[in-house]
């Protein structure tokens, strides 16, 4: 049911924000080590150096913050891509952006031997940009020009190619395999605040920029000819959206690895709640994306307790049926 009145949309936004805080609290409290809400409060008000307090402060708090930031970034980048390409299946992972960013990080580890967080971040941005440009170029070939189906096929082909290159590099360097295997599955575990701080400026620019460009996205969604008739510089807007997607997806991959399906699921859920106005879609996508990844991360701790499942596996379990549903609906409507 779509919320039509502005007051209801504001109430929904406030409710989503409160639920996000609840999930962040749950992420801090729940896990293999038994902790309580009281312990969590004491950690920040009366730290005593106990094992539980150390885990909450140095492990679970960064993990919750990273999950929220990454989930918000992936949700917004998916919403931008789906509008830009007019493709309901568009997302950073389907279009190979995540795979390109991941491949460049693996190159940084296996060939360039870098271990700097900043270096990982820039390599991820480079890979994300190369993938985005490659998908757009390949999808534009042919008489029909750029179409949603060609974009999807181009993204799938490039994602497979990047994944093959990544696996080949890791086969040649077993030491690097141990270092990046858990990261490649998509995980927010084992990260600290330094990892988040390194990419936070880029994610912040991407999220704020998405809010600022939301009005222009509404015009662009009306169609190329209509948008130009209304005086919109569509080429400039598309370039801007591409840069924002690279910042959001590249930054997310740099800190958490290639986590899939958030960018597909969240935009559709968001539009079912607030409609197609991007002034509402963007903030809702950010909050719902953060909530989904936090919930998936909490669930990943209990699937194979005491072992943890990478959160990318959990999002795949959630997202695959949704992807199939959207794909079938899209083909049946043709």
From TrEMBL:
Kindly give the membrane topology term recorded for this protein: Multi-pass membrane protein
> Mind telling me which residue stretches traverse the membrane in this protein?
12-32, 64-82, 94-112, 119-139, 151-172, 193-215, 235-268, 280-303, 309-327
Q: What is one process in the GO biological process aspect for this record?
A: siderophore-iron import into cell
Protein localization: Cell membrane
Does this entry carry the keyword Cytoplasm?
A: no
| Entries under Pfam families matching the protein | FecCD
SUPFAM superfamilies the UniProt entry points to: ABC transporter involved in vitamin B12 uptake, BtuC
Q: Name one GO molecular function term.
A: transmembrane transporter activity
What keywords tag this UniProt record? Answer: Cell membrane, Membrane, Transmembrane, Transmembrane helix, Transport
One cellular component term from this protein's GO annotations in UniProt: plasma membrane
PANTHER family reported in the protein's UniProt record? FERRIC ENTEROBACTIN TRANSPORT SYSTEM PERMEASE PROTEIN (PTHR30472), SIDEROPHORE TRANSPORT SYSTEM PERMEASE PROTEIN YFIZ-RELATED (PTHR30472:SF65)
Give the record's family classification.
Belongs to the binding-protein-dependent transport system permease family. FecCD subfamily.
Q: What is this protein called?
A: Iron ABC transporter permease
- What organism is the protein native to? Neobacillus notoginsengisoli
């Amino acid at each position: 049911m779509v919320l039509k009145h502005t007051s209801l949309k504001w109430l929904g936004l406030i409710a989503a924000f409160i639920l996000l805080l609840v999930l962040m609290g749950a992420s801090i409290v729940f896990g293999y080590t038994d902790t309580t809400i009281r312990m969590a409060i004491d950690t920040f008000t009366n730290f005593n150096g106990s094992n539980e307090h150390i885990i909450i402060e140095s492990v679970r708090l960064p993990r919750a913050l990273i999950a929220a930031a990454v989930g918000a970034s992936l949700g917004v980048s998916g919403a931008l891509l789906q509008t830009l390409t007019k493709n309901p299946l568009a997302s950073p992972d389907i279009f190979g952006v995540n795979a390109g960013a991941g491949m460049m990080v693996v190159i940084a580890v296996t060939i360039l031997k870098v271990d700097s967080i900043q270096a990982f971040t820039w390599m991820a941005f480079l890979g994300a940009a190369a993938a985005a440009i490659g998908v757009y170029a390949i999808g534009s070939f042919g008489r029909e020009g750029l179409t949603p189906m060609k974009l999807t096929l181009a993204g799938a082909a490039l994602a497979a190619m990047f994944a093959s290159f990544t696996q080949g590099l890791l086969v040649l360097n077993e030491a690097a395999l141990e270092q990046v295997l858990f990261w490649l599955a998509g995980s927010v575990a084992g990260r600290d605040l330094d990892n988040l701080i390194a990419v936070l400026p880029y994610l912040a620019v991407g999220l704020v920029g998405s809010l600022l460009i939301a009005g222009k996205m509404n015009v662009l969604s009306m169609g190329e000819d209509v948008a130009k008739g209304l005086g919109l510089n569509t080429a400039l807007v598309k370039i801007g959206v591409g840069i924002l997607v690279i910042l959001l997806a590249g930054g997310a991959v740099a800190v958490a690895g290639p986590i899939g399906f958030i960018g597909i699921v969240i935009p559709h859920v968001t539009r079912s709640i607030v409609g197609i106005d991007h002034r509402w879609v963007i903030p809702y996508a950010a909050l719902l994306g953060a909530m989904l990844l936090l919930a998936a991360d909490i669930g990943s701790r209990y699937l194979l307790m005491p072992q943890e499942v990478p959160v990318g596996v959990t999002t795949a379990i959630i997202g695959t049926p949704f992807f199939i549903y959207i794909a079938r609906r899209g083909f049946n409507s043709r």
